[in-house]
Amino acid sequence: MKLVLLSGGSGKRLWPLSNDSRSKQFLKVLENEEKEMVSMVQRVWGQIERSGLGASTFVATGKSQIEMMHSQLGPHVPLIIEPERRDTFPAIALTAAYLYSFIGVDPDEVIAILPVDPFVENRFFDTVKQLEEVVSATRADLALIGVQPTYPSSKYGYIIPESGADSSGGSLKVSHFREKPQEEEAKNLIAQGALWNCGVFAFRLGYLIDILSGQGLPVNYEELSEHYDQLPKISFDYEVVEKAAHITVVPYEGYWKDLGTWNTLTEEMKNNQIGRGTISGDCSNTHLINEIDIPVSIIGLSDIVVAVSPDGILVTDKSESPRIKDYIDYNQGPMYEERQWGWVRILDDQSYEDGRCAVTKRVCILGGKSLSYRMHTSREEVWTIIKGEAEFVQNGNFMLIGPGNVLHIPMKTLHTLRASADLEMIVVQSGQVREPNRMLELYPTWDEMSQHCFKTS
């Protein structure tokens, strides 16, 4: 069986910490067994490896998340790259084409799809392993995992098994689905044996390949990727699940939670404060997550979340936090990005009446990491080194740099650096608004650059 983690969403419900490049699954707000702060994706990947599924697991993600995935999980985690964000059916279709045409997976092999951010116990993955046998034994089109509900939630979808369905073999035949019912209806559904839909399902690879062929879609990964923008923006549930003739579900009785809102996420945080600030002693069920250096004080307020990042500030009642996605429509790019080599924080972004623009950034290059050998086609930069040491190359010329060095990098000038210790610098990038900034890479790594460029000591 091949397991695929879906990681494509932007996570607007956890704004301002989440954005297009750093989705909710990358936020390091959970604590692992070693008391280290980890993200949702790091936590679930650790569980997958401990369950013995690591060697057969892939991550389906978008271009904007590649560096974050490599930064948090390592460079060797196999990624299936979406050219753009187009909902879950296109993402899973592309995944199937990749496994079929690029990896050469047999059409009879079972593929299990799992959201990247479930908060579950380790034994949940024992149930995931059962999906392979269930698909083979029942010959079902799809096999799902349904969580035994602990209360009548209106936040989750429900899987309703057939009345009197035989549970032999550990699975039940599915009758129908109900999406986010009101609480009273949820009570009735639970009384009928309904299960929470946790978004985990499995199928024979050939089942989905046949669906793609039937729709006239390419089953070759490269060809489907080239025409990806022509695929319908529709969920896998609507396009495939609701049309399947035979669906079975494996019940799971154990802890499971969707950490998609500030309300549910803070319930699993070990500390009620991360970052600089103060929460007064008379506050109750109040959380502060602060990623900037300005202190935040919360006095006499209960049942709230205050989240602060370079992207903005959120103050919300916990029960109302899911509404944030209806209010976030700010015309700005991410103000903080985590990269494979470090991180970038936007300090200031200005455009002027004469057509000039200037962006000021604080940039960190981690020790031992390097930038690609690159040039900007229409921006010049000034680097002021404030911490650390590095080797710096500009147009083939080598020098050592450290705190106090100021470097001018004109437009169309090749440059790179490799940090010997964690290096921080202030970068001022300027140019003309009408000329979009493009970055061209000559060599992606320091080793490739050093093989082709003259270096003196």
Automatic annotation (TrEMBL):
Residues 351-433 form the Mannose-6-phosphate isomerase type II C-terminal domain. The keyword Nucleotidyltransferase applies. Gene3D superfamilies: Jelly Rolls, Spore Coat Polysaccharide Biosynthesis Protein SpsA, Chain A. InterPro entries: Man6P_isomerase-2_C, Mannose-6P_isomerase_type2, NTP_transferase_dom, Nucleotide-diphossugar_trans, RmlC-like_jellyroll, RmlC_Cupin_sf. Signal peptide: none annotated. One of its GO terms (molecular function) is nucleotidyltransferase activity. Residues 4-270 form the Nucleotidyl transferase domain. The keyword Transport does not apply. Keywords: Nucleotidyltransferase, Transferase. This is Mannose-1-phosphate guanylyltransferase. The lineage of its organism: Bacteria, Bacillati, Bacillota, Bacilli, Bacillales. It comes from the Bacteria. Pfam families: MannoseP_isomer (PF01050), NTP_transferase (PF00483).
